[in-house]
């Protein structure tokens, strides 16, 4: 059996560190792990998508529509954009942040309303958390990605808390480790 996780966001939000952290956690727990990153226009604020698949024997890193067990999203519209990939009853963990895409910035469109309730109506379990606030409480809004991963870890029974802590130590530069540990704990609600 293979479990599928999509990490989605906008360039510059730290989704690549989040995928590296999750991959490290899974490898340390003994899973076969495949990770595939799709960058788009990430350096210009465009979508960034990472597929993380794990299990006993994973053949491909790609996730098809309707196969994702989890979506971790660093922005609400990005979560909604990838809902067709989520399995019925799948879990979405999303940062409550709204980042205006270019059509909204130029006035060609309005930012969609009530996206969390629309995702729930589509059958998803959604946990929207203000990861920016939690990261700020930890000491820097740059740790919002780790606060969000802390929240995700509450739903993710496939890995121990020790594996998460060890992986934070392995993936985060030492000078930022305590800040990120605090952000992770705040994301978990500890």
The CATH architecture classification is: 3-Layer(aba) Sandwich
> Looking at this structure, what is the CATH superfamily?
Pyruvate-ferredoxin oxidoreductase, PFOR, domain III
Whole-number average pLDDT?
91
Structural class of the helix and strand makeup?
A: alpha/beta
Query: Would you list the SSEs in sequence order as H and E?
Result: EHEEEHEHHEHHHH
Q: What radius of gyration results from the CA coordinates?
A: 16 Å
Question: Would you tell me which CATH topology applies?
Answer: Pyruvate-ferredoxin Oxidoreductase, domain 3
Strand order of the largest sheet: 2-3-1-4-5-6
Give the number of helices: 8
Distance between the termini: 31 Å
**How many separate domains?**
1
Sequence stretches where pLDDT stays below 50 over 5 or more residues: none
Give the % helix.
25-40%
Taking the sheet with the most strands, its summary is:
6 strands, mixed
User: Would you count the extended β strands for me?
Assistant: 6
Strand content: 15-25%
Q: What is the CATH first-level class name?
A: Alpha Beta
Shape: globular
Give short descriptive properties of this protein.
about 25% strand, 6 strands, Pyruvate-ferredoxin Oxidoreductase, domain 3, about 40% helix, about 190 residues, six-stranded mixed sheet, alpha/beta, globular
């Amino acid at each position: 059996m293979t479990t599928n996780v999509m990490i989605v966001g906008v360039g510059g939000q730290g989704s690549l560190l989040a995928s590296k952290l999750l991959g490290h956690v899974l490898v340390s727990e003994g899973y076969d792990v495949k990770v595939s990153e799709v960058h788009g226009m990430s350096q210009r604020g465009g979508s960034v998508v990472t597929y993380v698949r794990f299990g006993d024997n994973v053949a491909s890193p790609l996730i098809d529509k309707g196969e994702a067990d989890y979506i971790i999203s660093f922005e609400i519209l990005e979560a909604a954009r990838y809902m067709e990939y989520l399995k019925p009853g799948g879990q979405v963990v999303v940062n409550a942040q709204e980042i205006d895409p270019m059509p909204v910035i130029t006035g060609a469109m309005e930012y969609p309303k009530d996206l969390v309730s629309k995702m729930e109506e589509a059958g998803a379990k959604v946990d929207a958390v203000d990861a920016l606030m939690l990261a700020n409480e930890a000491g820097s809004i740059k740790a919002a990605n780790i606060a969000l991963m802390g929240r995700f870890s509450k739903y993710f029974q496939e890995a121990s808390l020790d594996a998460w802590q060890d992986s934070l130590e392995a993936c985060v530069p030492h000078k930022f480790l305590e800040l990120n540990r605090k952000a992770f704990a705040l994301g978990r609600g500890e």
